[in-house]
Amino acid sequence: MRTFNWAILGPGRIARKFAADLAHVPGAKLHAVASRSLAKAEAFAAEFGASHAVGSYEELLAVPGIDAVYVATPHSEHHAHTLLCLRGGLPVLCEKAFAQNAGQAQEMVRVAQEQGVFLMEAFWTRFFPAIAQALELVQSGVIGEVKHLVADFGFAAPFEPEGRLFNPALAGGSLLDIGVYPLFISQLFLGAPAAVRAVSTPTGTGVDANCAMALAYASGATATLFSTIAATTDNRCVLYGTKGQLQLLGRFHAPTGVRVQLLGEAEAQEFPAPTAGGGYQHEAAHVQQCLAQGLRESPLLPLAFSLALMELLDAVRREIGLRYPGE
């Protein structure tokens, strides 16, 4: 079996989870770690068995044998760091939100295509087995025509004005960090909305603490979506159809199965879909499959989908009046 040498650019909290999950991916090996701090890169590399550690992102381009780079820096940096890697000929799996805005995302896609290099948004939810189950059930008409979708994601974060979640310069706020999940799931099941409305509650730094969204679709369906960094919510997603309803079990962004309740039936059907590890291994394995086939983008999460999602995020930000520095 071929070995795929992964590099991590930005060894923070989510990168730790990704690195740990590479142990569940056949043929995957953490090969290199890049940080602005050499000491941090070396400690991360030692913990996860990487052969190379560098103290700047630019130095990563000189490390031999890299097959793919996982970009896990703050949202505000995704654009620059992805372009750095793409222009160096390195395939990129870029953490969501894909970029700060649609303009940045469009440039990332253009450069990937010009360079002929693989690029994918690291939207791990898309690759959970339960998502494949849910899509199959909905598309086969089990719950009839979908009329409404509800999804929420929230946790209570301590107010740290300079921290990633609250700093406007780091594209902070609930929307880009976790509101992207309800928007993602609505786009996956319902497509692009015909109308978008949103309201928000600002934090002391001006980014959104709460964001409530209402979407309408040409099909006649609607969606009610919510994100917050001020309270813990159920992290729940339910699709309501003309024949019944479907719920993603567990936290919907990392689902453990699907429950279907049909109208007129006393008992709900459950379809468990357990996963080993933390769940990041699914997207890593998919990237390896794409690279092995010589693909430049994912058939399950194509670049057009990520661009549409960024445009939707921009539309919500226009509704709530949120702009980041430099925009």
From TrEMBL:
Residue ranges annotated for the GFO/IDH/MocA-like oxidoreductase domain, each copy included: 132-246
GO MF annotation: an example: nucleotide binding
One Pfam family in the UniProt entry: GFO_IDH_MocA_C3
Keyword annotations of the record: Oxidoreductase
Domain Gfo/Idh/MocA-like oxidoreductase N-terminal intervals: 4-122
InterPro entries the UniProt entry points to: Gfo/Idh/MocA-like_OxRdtase_N (IPR000683), Gfo/Idh/MocA_domain (IPR050984), GFO_IDH_MocA-like_dom (IPR055170), NAD(P)-bd_dom_sf (IPR036291)
Domain of life the protein comes from: Bacteria
Family, per entry: Belongs to the Gfo/Idh/MocA family.
Name this protein carries in UniProt: Gfo/Idh/MocA family oxidoreductase
